[in-house]
Specification:
The protein contains ten helices and 21 strands. The chain is an alpha+beta fold.
């Protein structure tokens, strides 16, 4: 048996609202499958199962749950030991509807008489059914069938009928209903996950459009499907059908785990079905995510490209000295990240995003850097670009994470410009695609030796690299791109 515990999702909230169960109670679940959506004050996050088996809910829909509390359990058995078994201390765990075992005599079993005056479920905590809470009907029905009417005395001889939601008395058969205030109505505004909001900005989808989908939780796949249908990119059908085709968006795991992300566009998916036809190659989850990012980029971004030759020999020599100075590995990647970030004040539109006909400049530079160590393409973002030591620390951690595919969620979000590394030997030209949500991607190629004729007529060698810039032509023109690359060259020399 494995517990799915709630991780700390942010530093602002002490508890989160369970807004959706993605897997029904008692149903089978695979390792890595998302099982629930929790809403915080800032976003909505999905939690995943760590193991395969049968999922048993440990907390009710529309209740509050704290970090560290058990959200659900995954067992090898289809039948749970007890619904909502855990009643944690107030302020430190999940709100639960289950009464402690001590409130019901051990002799009480289906078909046995209940002694007069026995109160079933009397010890339910004060917040067991929060005010204004609308209970999930299936959960309420099961809870009542097991514990009778919460806090109500059961007449002598009355027996809760297994599988029903009512208690039987000699003369009356009242129907038990969840405790719901009649003046409370379900919220009409959907919960929009943070990645869905990012997709809305990237693809120019308005809030009214996602509300019109009629879904309770809006995920990135819903926004992408909506944008694709609107632009005729091949998605058809109802919102529900669109969701079925791409069921999973953002994932939060209780503990660090292998993730399959390309920033701003990647989703984890259910494992590929077995039995691929002979002679075919099944794309990996990471590569399918890359394919989606490339497709959205080419479908929505009119890209152009400019390349300049940089002399990088002095940079490589400088990097060796800086490695000794900061006691961290420093190479072209670290130097280019620092230089690109330094251009943010002079070239704010190169770090912007496009929303329809409006460009939204970023408050600070966050430079995404590509890593492909054989486990798939990842583009984590360097958020702290204030010092070369900090950049070197971050990129070293990302290199280690890329070897295992073990990135934190926040590492893979927030980039507003990309530096793509193509430094394998003999690569002289690379044209990156522009990641959705950004307007520029810089390409660094492998340093090459070049013979040049000096002013004195002598032939000498120098080390150069072709540095290219892919840019969104809706916002940036060729002249601007050339100015940016020229300024970058000066920034690197300084």
């Amino acid at each position: 048996m494995a517990d799915i515990r709630v991780p700390k999702l942010n530093n602002n909230d002490t508890e989160y609202l369970i807004v959706q169960w993605l897997v029904e109670d008692g149903m089978s679940v695979g390792a890595g499958d998302p099982v629930a959506v929790l809403e915080t004050s800032k976003a909505a996050d999905e939690l995943e199962a760590e193991e395969s088996g049968y999922l048993h809910h440990a907390a009710a829909l529309n209740t509050w749950i704290a970090p560290g509390a058990v959200l659900a359990r995954v067992t090898s058995e289809a039948t749970p030991a007890l619904a909502f078994p855990e009643v944690p201390a107030a302020g430190s765990a999940a709100t639960s509807l289950a009464a402690p075992e001590s409130t019901v005599p051990a002799s009480t079993v289906p078909g046995a008489a209940v002694p007069q005056g026995t109160v079933l479920g009397a010890a339910v905590p004060e917040r067991a059914v929060p005010e204004n809470t609308i209970l999930d009907a299936a959960i309420a029905e099961r809870t009542v069938s097991e514990a009778g009417v919460l806090g109500a005395a059961v007449p002598q001889g009355a027996v809760p009928e297994s599988g029903t939601s009512k208690t039987t008395a000699p003369d009356t058969q009242p129907t038990v209903r969840p405790a719901v205030r009649p003046d409370v109505q379900p919220a009409v505004q959907p919960v929009v996950t943070d990645l869905a909001r990012a997709a809305m900005e990237e693809l120019g989808v308005s809030h009214d459009e996602v509300v019109a989908l009629g879904l309770r939780v809006i995920r990135r796949s819903d926004v992408e499907a909506l944008a694709a249908r609107r632009t005729g990119a091949g998605h058809t059908g109802s919102p529900a059908a669109g969701r079925a085709e791409a069921p999973v968006v953002r994932s939060r795991r209780p503990v660090p785990h292998r993730r399959t992300h390309v920033p701003a566009i990647t989703r984890t998916e259910a494992p590929a079905a077995a039995g691929d036809a002979a002679g075919t190659h099944r794309l990996s989850r990471v590569q399918r995510a890359v394919a989606r990012a490339v497709t959205v980029s080419h479908d929505t971004i009119p890209a152009a490209y400019t390349v300049m030759k940089f002399e990088v020999g002095p940079l490589l020599e400088r990097a060796r000295g800086l490695t000794r100075e900061v006691r961290r590995p420093v190479g072209l990647a670290e130097l280019f990240v620092q230089a690109v970030a330094g251009l943010h004040p002079a070239f704010p539109l190169f770090f912007a995003s496009i929303d329809g006909e409006v460009a939204r400049p970023a408050e600070a530079p966050r430079v995404g850097v590509t890593f492909d160590m054989g486990e798939g393409l990842y583009v984590p973002a360097v958020h702290d670009t204030g010092s070369l030591r900090s950049i070197a620390d971050t990129l070293m951690r990302y290199r280690l994470a890329a070897t295992e595919g073990d990135f934190r969620e926040k590492d893979l979000a927030g980039a507003n410009i990309a530096v793509t590394l193509h430094t394998d030997a003999d690569v002289i030209l690379a044209i990156p695609f522009i990641f959705p949500g950004t307007v520029c991607a810089l390409a660094i190629t492998s340093p090459q030796q070049e013979l040049v004729l000096g002013e004195d007529g002598a032939v000498t060698a120098r080390t150069v690299a072709n540095i290219g810039l892919a840019y969104d032509h809706r916002l940036i023109n060729g002249r601007d791109a050339s100015r940016f690359l020229a300024a970058l060259r000066i920034e690197l020399k300084s």
